[in-house]
Every structure is written in C-alpha cells, then in structure tokens.
Design brief:
The chain is built from eleven helices and 43 strands. It is an alpha+beta fold.
Length: 724
C-alpha cells in the first residue's frame, strides 16, 4: 500500500510528480506518480549504486523491453521510460488489484474454476512472451496481480531472451527457489519449459495455499526441486494429472503453453467465464477498494527522521462487499488509469509516518512502560525467517536471497547484497562478515564489505563441494568451519579467516536429515554442534570429534535449542538436560513429573531454548511460564506466579541482560515481555510494531555495544533501547 515519501526522495522523475512510495528494497524503489494530465502511474527506479554499473543498467533496459513485449492485456502497460537517466526509471500503468499471494492470504485457497481460469490466462501471457523469444524466469505468486480484467504478470527484472547468458554473473540469484525449475536450480538454461514449471507451482499455490516443494532455506528448496516429488495433496483431482506433467523434472515432458491452456479450459466445470466470475467476494472487494483508494492518495513527505520517532502499522480497514457487475463497471472506468506496482524489494525498511509537519519529541517509553522503538525493518520476499547477525556496530539481516547491512543503533541502511543459499551461507566472527559466493556451479568463500555490500577477493575456492549442500557452521578464533557434500561423501573443513589457508579437512557422517536446523556454539578452542538427536563437541584446531552422543527422542525432539557454560551444555525440549562438556554425559535432568496443565501432552516439547547467566539457567516452560534453575545441580530456584504471569511462548529464543529476562508472549500482538529478575514479575510488554503481523517464532537478542534489544519475528525486525 502507499506510504509517504521520505525526506530525501526525488520530487519528480521525467514529467511525473511523485505522490507516494509503493515499496522499496535491495535493488530499487517503486513510487506512485502522476502525469501533468492527472494519469496515475507506477514508477520503478534503480538505487544509485546499481545505476553506476553497466550490467544493472543493461538488465533494467531488458526489463523495460520485456514489459513492452507482454503489453497491457497481460501485463502493466509501459507508459514511459528513461534507462539512461542518472536514476533510471520505468513508468507503467498502476494496476489495481492484489498480488496472488495476498489474495490467497486474504481468502484462502482459490476454488478450482478460479485456478483453471487463472492458469489459462497466464498461459496466454507466457505464450505472448515466448513468441518473442523472451522467458520470464521468475514467475511466482507475488508477480501476478489479480484485476477486474484478469491476471497481469509483472516484474521482468531477470527476464531475458532464450539462450542469452549475458546477465549471468557470480553470486546472482536468478529466480525464486520455491518456483525455480530443476534446470534453473543447477544454473542450466531456462527455456519456455521452465516458465511452465514455475506456472504449475503458482497454480499449486493458488489451489492449496502452499508451494509444491514446501518452504524453508533456499538450499533445501533447491534440493527438493531437483530431487523430490512435489506435494500435490489438496490439489483438486481434476487438476492433479495436468500439474504433475508440468512439474516433470525433464523439460521435454512438460506441455507447452498452448496445450496446457487447452487442458485447463477443457477441464473447467462449466467451460465458461473468466477468472473474475470465480474469485471469492473478499478478493473482489479488495480490488474495488484499491480502485477507489488510488484517487484519495495525496502527496505527503516525511520530515528528516528523529531516531526516537516511530509509528505503528494498523490493521487493514474493513473491505466493502461489492457485486461482480459493479466491479466490472468500475473496471471499465477507473481501471483504465491503473498501473503495476510490484515492490522491487528483498529487505525493505518500513517508514509509515505520515504528514509533513515536524513532530514533537516523544517520551522514551510507551504508556505501558515499554521503551519506544528506535527502528524497524521487514524482509519483503522471503520463504523463511529473516536472520539477524551482529557484525561490529552493524547488523546484517539475511533473507532467502538478500543481505541488508544496517547500523544496529540507528537502523540506517549501509548497503545491500545479493545472496545465494540464505542464512546458512553467511557467518560473522563478530567483527567481519563472510559468505559463500559463486552461484550454483562454482563455490567460493569471501568476506563481505559492509559499506558497499560487495563481495571482496575470495579467501578460498571450494570447487568440489555441492553448492546446494554446503553451509557455514561456526567461527572459532580464526577458523571458519564449513560442512558440505562432495562426490565422495560429507566433509568438514576449516579455513583461516585471515589467510584463506585450509587448516584441516575431515570426513564426517552424512547428516540423518539435512533439513533439520543445525546449531553450533564456540566453547574455548572447540565448538558444540547439535542437530536432530546428535550432540557433539568438535576440536576446532584439528576437526577431531572429542565426543558425540545421541539424545533420545524421549528427551529431545530437535536437540538444537541449547546454551553453553564453561563446563556444561544445556538442552531444552521434553526435558531440560545438562551435559558435561568434558565427556557429553548427562549431569542432571529436570522436568520429569512436572505438571503442565489440563492439556498436557507427554509427547510434546515442554522447554524452550535455555539461557545461562551467573550460574543460573532460565527457560520458559509450557503452561508454567518462566523458571530459574541452579546450573550446578538442576534444582528449581524459583518460578513465576502463574496467577500474575504473562503467558510466554516457550519455543521462542529469549535473552537475559541488565536484570531483565526478555521473552516473547504467546499473544501475537505482543512481541516482548521484560521480566524483572528481582521481583520476578513482568515489568513491561512491547506491542507488535507491524499491526497484526507476527505468528512466527521470535528470536530476541541483546547487543550491549550498540545498546539495542533486537527482535526478529519471521520477516520482521525491530530495535528497542537496551536497559542497562
């Protein structure tokens, strides 16, 4: 939705006056603009640092060409463009309708007739592209807008002529992992058959509400795309055989767009009607609301921001009910001036204050006692959670395909980077950031410049490792430890972070399930590694495993929620366990015989990630709130009074700092509860700064050097002042 312009946004691009921001991200910004004659357009621009590079200007010009090829019937009509301007820009009609992923989030999976009509229309759109020898290469739900005149395909940022490899570059992310074709996932040629594969994934999402290969980290998704069968449970029986053909691993076995369009139309229950005749009322109402609201947007610009100021997003207003006849009437008039907005973003800072008048200085706390938020950001296009990585005075936010470098104290953006493999391929030693670079065919380990986001000269080349099965694990001293799969099996490698020298390489057991989260924590010259039921202590100087134990399922479901002290490792799951670091043997366990309320499930996880400080282990317990244990013997020191406590999310990652235990309440509208360790009561709670967004498991971390408390919840991140 439209947001006010920032204080440093331009006032005009070409002949178009800027009215509002529609989205911003790693590559550029999309604005709402108006021509001198009053026509509303969407203006897509490129960030200055990318505009200075010939490669990105070429890509932008090709995007303009592809948008012109598809035209206004199946895409956003190109109104004007200047790819040679100091800030290149593209003006298109402003399309009035929600992206497909927003529509599904609003009303759930679409009925079969709507899915068939959607697919048939998209086949026509792709056929128009393919006749001009252009392939889209990034077809996904967020790039498909639903309008009263049918679906429109947008965002041709990585579209190119079939067989053209000019824009392939080291480290580039060519597509979205959840909807890539198998050939695209391994860096091969993406032909029109690859667009058909992606279209089938989009239709599976429309019919079920989920992608065909699930969600998670990019490396996991790409592995499933290459080797696993799609999950078509929930797809209507009549559609399943058609989509199975489209999702064949071999491109030659997939139908073309003409054949697929005919199959979708022939199998329609009534054989008539377009997609608008079958869309749920809530989606039609959303289209109508957008059609009316565009005329109400007035130019506004934010003042120079004060770091203590913030506002909170509010829930969307109630959508009116509208008849299909009325909607189509609107489509014949208002929609003629519409245009495509698709936010070009991977990680976008949210700035939703409105108005131009200077604001009064606000107090440092909210009415509920919580400190006022300093900054917030959101990851715009991720299939998994964003991950916050402290790097000196900065904070790196890793999404599935991008890395945002920001000042942890102020939230100011420093740089953006493209990223392959998500957070598993990024690691910090506290002062420097390292990442795996090189695309899907050649792998290199390189430092990342936080000032520019660029990859520096590589430290090491890792040609024999599978890029989809390689991850950065931990930094211990100067040793950067990686794990990956070679043709001969899995290996563990240590690279010197200064010289790039390979310190050691050792074979390792094949992980029982590579999809399970791996957690590694330095302990002196060694590190603890937990994954699934496996818990190990590994010497970082030699790679030798000092000990390895299996934590049985009766104690642990994941074995990854751990913290370490100088002599013990603490694990939280069905019970809370203390393992000696000297030999891995269990010193004590806690939880057996505890009462967990009326809905006790003996098979469920009962203890969240433990936190250790000053010989005390803190953890959240299912139904029993916060507890504190003596780290030496596991004796219960105290527990919150259930009659006055705020219900806490026992699975969230919490932290202790300055006399407070920072946890996440079960209520999605509340993101932090600060529990005073002296009174053992909740001192304050912090409300969600993103309205009704949330619901994912939060991670809370303290950054004493920056004096900030960081909260990461799904794609959303925010910072509060840290009480000392």
């Amino acid at each position: 939705m439209a947001q006010p312009l920032t204080h440093d946004d331009p006032r005009q691009l070409g002949a178009y006056a800027l009215v509002a921001r529609l989205g911003s991200g790693g590559m550029g910004t999309v604005y709402l603009g108006r021509s001198p004659g009053g026509r509303t357009v969407a203006l897509k621009t490129m960030h200055r640092q990318f505009a200075a590079q010939t490669e990105f200007r070429t890509r932008f010009r090709l995007e303009i060409d592809a948008a012109r090829v598809i035209g206004g019937q199946y895409g956003a009509q190109v109104v004007d463009a200047d790819p040679l301007a100091p800030t290149p820009w593209l003006a298109t009609e402003y399309v009035l309708g929600p992206p497909l992923d927003d529509a599904v989030a609003l009303c759930g999976a679409l009925p079969e007739p709507a899915v068939r009509a959607l697919g048939a229309a998209l086949c026509d759109a792709l056929a128009q592209l393919h006749r001009s020898d252009v392939v889209h290469r990034d077809l996904k739900p967020s790039n498909i807008l639903l309008t009263a005149r049918g679906p429109k395909v947008i965002d041709f940022g990585i579209a190119r002529a079939a067989g053209d490899d000019r824009l392939t570059r080291t480290g580039a992310t060519a597509g979205t992992p959840a909807y890539m074709s198998p050939e695209q996932a391994v860096g091969g040629e993406h032909t029109p058959a690859g667009d058909v594969f992606a279209l089938a994934g989009v239709l599976v999402f429309a019919a079920t509400g989920r992608p065909p290969f699930g969600s998670g980290q990019p490396a996991d998704l790409l592995y499933r795309v290459r080797y696993a069968e799609p999950d078509l449970s929930g797809v209507p029986d009549g559609l399943r055989p058609v989509l199975e053909r489209c999702l064949a691993k071999v491109p030659a076995r997939r139908p073309g767009t003409a054949e697929l369009g005919a199959l979708l139309q022939d199998g329609a229950p009534d054989g008539t009607g377009g997609i608008t005749d079958h869309l749920p009322d809530a989606v039609l109402a959303d289209i109508a609301q957008r059609s009316a609201a565009v005329w109400e947007i007035q130019p506004s610009r934010l003042p120079v921001p004060d770091e203590e100021e913030f506002t909170t997003l509010t829930s969307a207003s109630r959508r009116p009910r509208v008849t299909r006849r009325r909607l189509l009437t609107i489509g014949g008039g208002v929609l003629a001036a519409g245009g495509a907005a698709g936010a070009w973003g991977l990680l976008a800072r949210e700035d939703d204050t409105a108005g131009t008048a200077p604001k009064k200085k606000q107090s440092r706390s909210t009415p509920g006692g919580a400190p006022r938020m300093v900054w917030k950001a959101t990851a715009g296009e991720v299939s998994g959670d964003a991950v916050a990585i402290p790097v000196g005075d900065d904070l790196a936010l890793a999404s599935d395909s991008a890395l945002l470098h920001i000042d942890a104290r102020t939230g100011k953006r420093r740089a953006e980077s493209q990223l392959i493999g998500g957070a598993k391929t990024v690691l910090s030693d506290g002062e420097r950031l390292f990442a795996l670079d090189g695309g899907l065919s050649q792998l290199r380990l390189a430092p990342v410049d936080p000032a520019t986001g660029s990859f520096r000269a590589p430290l090491a080349e890792l040609d024999d490792l599978d890029p989809l099965q390689t991850r950065l694990v931990v930094v211990v001293g100067r040793s950067l430890v990686l794990e990956g799969e070679t043709r001969k099996g899995w290996v563990r490698i240590a690279i010197d972070s200064r010289t790039g020298e390979q310190r050691w390489r050792r074979p390792m057991p094949t992980p029982a399930d590579t999809y399970l989260d791996l957690v590694a924590t330095p302990v002196g010259a060694s590190y603890v590694r937990t994954q699934g039921e496996s818990v190990s202590l590994i010497d970082a100087r030699t790679g030798a495993t000092r000990w390895s134990v299996r934590v049985p399922q009766k104690h642990s479901e994941l074995g990854t929620t751990h913290t370490v002290a100088s002599d013990h490792l603490f694990l939280g799951s069905r019970e809370l366990l203390a393992l000696r670091l000297s030999d891995g043997r269990t010193t004590w366990s806690f939880g057996k015989g505890r009462k967990f309320g009326d809905h006790y499930d003996p098979q469920a996880q009962h203890y969240g990630p433990p936190v250790f400080k000053d010989d005390v282990v803190y953890t959240t317990e299912r139904d029993n709130r916060l507890i504190a244990l003596d780290a030496r013997n596991g004796h219960l020191l105290w527990e919150e009074d259930k009659s006055t406590a705020t219900p806490l999310s026992f699975s969230a990652t919490s932290t202790v700092n300055g006399g407070y235990f920072y946890a996440s309440p079960e209520n999605d509208a509340q993101w932090i509860a600060a529990i005073d360790l002296r009174t053992r009561r909740v001192a304050w709670t912090f409300q969600s700064p993103f309205g009704d967004k949330g619901s994912l498991i939060p991670v809370i971390m303290a950054l004493p050097k920056a004096k900030r408390l960081i909260v990461v919840r799904g794609p959303a991140v925010c910072a509060l002042p840290l009480d000392e």
